[in-house]
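Q: May I have one protein plus its fold?
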Amino acid sequence: RESKDIPSEFLENPEIMQAIECLQESSFSPEELEYYDKYWDYVSRSKTLSDEKYEQGIGLGKEIGLQEGKMAEKISGIKKALQRGKLSVEEMAEDFDVSIDFVVKIRNSEI
């Protein structure tokens, strides 16, 4: 099924190449046509799975970014509260929805 009988200037034209592919496909035996169809089904499924995984990765990245942003905001707020010195460690933990140990680590500059 080589295109050695087709002049090279025709092979450079996308429309002619598409027509050649159609002609080649129409000349497939039933077994070749089945293989050809399975191949393109595989390509299509692979692309779909790849696209889905990409979208899942983007979604996961956004979620991680949001969580990191929320945590940075909590840390910043706790540091400000510690500087003011008006709240107890327990009150800060409750207000910022973190553990007492977390507030203590921030106070001790471990975070």
Q: What stands out?
A: The radius of gyration is 31 Å.
